[in-house]
Amino acid sequence: MNPMKKFRWPAALALAACALLGAATVHASTYPSRPIKLIIPYAVGGSTDQTGRLMAKSLSERLGQAVVVENRAGAGGTLGQDFVAKASADGYTLLFSAAGPLTVTPHTYAKLSYDPVKSFEPIALVATQPLLLAVKPGLKADSVAELIAQAKANPGKLSYGSFGNGSAAHLAGEYFKTLTGVDMVHVPYKGSGPALVDLVAGQIDLMFDVFSTSAPLVKAGKLRALAITSTERSPQFPQVPTMQQAGVAGFEAGTWFGLLAPAGTPRPVIDKLSAAVNAALGEKELQETLASQGASVRGGTPEQFRSYFLAEYDKWGRIVKSAGVTAD
Fold it and tell me: Is residue 10 part of a domain?
């Protein structure tokens, strides 16, 4: 056997590796060379859509290519997730998502067409948004402690609404029940709007709702806020304590917004997008919009986003399992 033949395969592999590295480098240096599609897995008009469109506008300006928003709503956000998971990993199809379809839904469905951990490359955490614990006007409880006392004195009598089975509002209610030992009835709705209508009308007693939709009703005096689920008070409601300040130790809940790409997207492309997102988060318009929604600007590296995401995934997985929540 010709001894030189022993080195042909390693040499060929080395050349192939160099070629791939070179291709990735060229791709990153010319990226983006055409419009980018930004998938938002929710309907037009919600807080995720509003923030995603602002992010698309800013990224378009910074990347020199149009970032076109496409809403693919349905099945609790899973349709849009599935579309991106199956897209080409070239940086031209991105996902702007809230937390639910990535950290909660996977634990409530028996089977999903995508793997939230393996199907995506985290790019950057954009913002976190707390929930407000809001109660109907006539409820005789002026604090979380009084609410807990009333619930314990009347097990199974108080009801709490949510914008869907397995939603952030539902899981926050289950989390509250677990930490306080109260028994309340869950009433799921098809969206935050219908649930808030019934809460204002007194058909249900309380709700853990997204800040951006419940805050206007609190300011208008149609609902009362007993606590906020973040670790810090809101500048919009400085008099409203956090859940932990209100006596529920360890309670922190809410949602978040992040930008992700299909798994396998070249790292130089991920880095370029991450840098653009972080620069965008320094813009006044985006900061003011997020602040109006009660959200906090985050940012950071892809690794930091991945660590945050995995921690949230594990946390809500435990809560879902403990509460026995399913998507059915």
Answer: no
